[in-house]
Amino acid sequence: MIFSATSLAPWWCFACVICGGVPEWPEGGVANREWVVEALEWRLDRGVDGCKDLTPVIDAWTLEWIANSAEIRVEIQTEKWPIFTAEPKLQGPLIQIMALQELKGRDYNADRILRKLKKFARKSDGIWSEELKEKFEETKKISN
Are 47 and 127 a contacting pair, CB within 8 Å? Predict the structure, then answer.
């Protein structure tokens, strides 16, 4: 069997596909609104463990900026989000999704947020399960 550089391209560029398009780090290491929007759009297209070298840093910077922002406020009533009993790893992404909606000037829409969170969960290795599917259905009933 003969291998050429082109036959190896999918293997060596696997990280390029997963982590491609990551936003430049914020200038001076301080996140601002524009960077947070760009970072959240990129981040929410990956699963919980997507691009493991970069997502923890992006999560930390975006969640810190959201928590300290006078511009937006994210409130979550946990009783309206039973999915957390099945998968607590979705709390951060839910905050990020809600913040991004607000930063884009969109009105709160629980169905749209839930759909985005469900899409995110399905992209996450080892998270999607029958229990989580049922919790999404339960959450949908509560939010309507």
Answer: yes
